[in-house]
Amino acid sequence: MKAVIFDLDGVITDTAEYHFLAWKRIAEQLHIPFDRSFNESLKGIGRQQSLDNILTRGGAASTFTTAEKQALMRQKNQYYQKLIENLAPGDLLPGIGKLLSELKDEHIQIALASSSRNAPAILKRLGISGDFQAVVDPETIEKGKPAPDIFLTAAALLGVSPAECAAIEDAEAGIAAIKSAGMFAVGVGDERSMHAADLIVSRTSQLSFHLLYSGWKRCRERQQTERS
Length: 228
Ligand code: BG6
Ligand code: MG
Description:
This protein is an alpha/beta fold. Helix content is 46%, strand content 10%. The protein has nine helices and six strands, in the order βαααααβαβαβαββα. Strands 3-2-1-4-5-6 form a six-stranded parallel beta sheet, with helices on both faces. α6 (119-126) links the parallel β2 and β3 (134-135). The model has no long low-confidence stretch (mean pLDDT 97). 6-O-phosphono-beta-D-glucopyranose is lined by residues 8-9, 16, 19, 42-47, 50, 77, 114-118, 171.
């Protein structure tokens, strides 16, 4: 294992909750039903696709012009940015600071594969920008999660092969992306939504270098046995 690739929202910090609150406000303005279970399907999905999914759910897919949709996305982002205004180093999810320093001690490379255009600003507010050797710009990625592209780009930026990477996600679309990139997938969340992951933890405080490394190694050994 030469690299660990992180998702941001819901893995490094609890901003997944703020995306939920901001989209909920937009959906309510449009009188479209919005709840936590529907929100699960939006996790990891880019801004434009998220809005399209919400509008489709409300039977309003073709009600808005491109300019109106742009305005809705801008407004969602304003609500979101207001919610993350006071984000600070203390908002790292439990165990993430410790995991980052363990990875540094072990000389494991660290990258970010987040679909969020707000990601670089969030890393800065959390005081961890310097820990990342690569941060993928989602605007340069043609196909978002569940396509593997963002994770493959992270590995390419680090100069490692997908098989040498473990990646951590809290979204079903994210786990699907990691698996189709051929990487070891670590899911944070409940067994039901993370069932496709190679390793599941219910909370970030359970993550450690040792857990990732032993899981990654077991998975690679199993694949080698299957191939021979
Ligand atoms: C992902 C989140 O990380 O980024 C999604 O899981 C969000 O909920 C997406 O919609 C895009 O984020 P942003 O900040 O560019 O609107
Ligand atoms: Mg996430």
